[in-house]
Amino acid sequence: YIYAAVSGGMAVICIVILSCLYKFKFEINDDVMINDIISGRYTGDFEAERIQLLYPLGVIFSLLYKAIPAVPWFGITLIFSTLILFWVILREILRLNKKIYSKIFVLIFAAAAFLAVTFPHLVIYQYTYSSAAFLSVGLFLLLSGRYAEENTAPENDVSLKNIFRLDNIIAIILFFISFCLREEMFLLGSPFILLTFLFRYIFSLKELSFSAKNSGKNELSKKYRLWVFLKYSALLLCTALVILFAFILHKVSVSSAEWEKFSNFFDKRTELYDYRTFPAYEENKSFFDEIGISE
């Protein structure tokens, strides 16, 4: 908790300093449109139905804006994505370095390197980057081994509390936010979630085998090996169920004919917008005809 508090304090201080030196802003028009829709600037109401974001996250934003309209919740969420990424890296640095002078030196170096690499994203925010940041933090929490069976005797580890530890729960929540914030970005990174669970399962078996040998046992029992497998399978299943729930809820919310028509239009608009220049009309006539653009 001390490491978490210190690293969190450093991250907040960096953000506060940057806020005094620069003005935070959105990077592209999609960020502005999302913010204007859910904050009520377009319709006068805090809309849960919005572009890009999936419905469950839209509902959460809508409730937050209704509770405290003066707070820019969407912008704060994008800022928080970089803040928590900064925080979790600093926390692990403090945890892994044992000597105080080593902690200070590496902490300063890591903070400077992080600020240098991510500086544009610290003052100019984009929801796609924030989705990737939330996903990265979730993966980092799993890979860091904070919830692993370190210094835990196998016979004392067989319990639900050792499945749903705090870092596990935070990781699943961050995966949910990442998915709802930018579905495509999350799907792009989803194979790394599977690899992370596989890595933690294999590495945990090695950690526990080493612990068992130190305690005088030759190897882990088949029963406990099965428990470790079920443990990580349960975490992966919970992650999948949370994502599936968000996806189904979103699909139900946009199942009307009006939403389907708008979604088709918006998808075509996105395809067109993603081009650096307008594509040649002759080669893409069917596409232009479909969205009502003539030569």
Keywords:
295 residues; mainly alpha; two-stranded parallel sheet; 2 strands; 72% helix; 1% strand
Please characterize this protein's 3D structure.
With 295 residues, this protein is mostly helical. It contains 11 helices and 2 strands; from the N terminus they run H-E-H-H-H-H-E-H-H-H-H-H-H. The chain is 72% helix and 1% strand. The chain has a two-stranded parallel ribbon with strand order 1-2. Helix 1 packs across helix 4 and helix 4 packs antiparallel against helix 5. The protein is globular. 25% of the residues are buried.
Low-pLDDT parts are 146-156
**Could you give the count of β-strands?**
2
Structural class: mainly alpha
By DSSP (H or I, 4+ residues per run), the number of helices equals: 11
The pLDDT mean sits at 78
Strand content: under 5%
Order of helices and strands: HEHHHHEHHHHHH
Distance between the termini: 63 Å
- Most strands sheet: 2 strands, parallel
The neighbouring-strand order within the major sheet is 1-2
* Coarse morphology: globular
Q: Percentage of helical residues?
A: over 70%
Query: Could you tell me the radius of gyration in angstroms?
Result: 23 Å
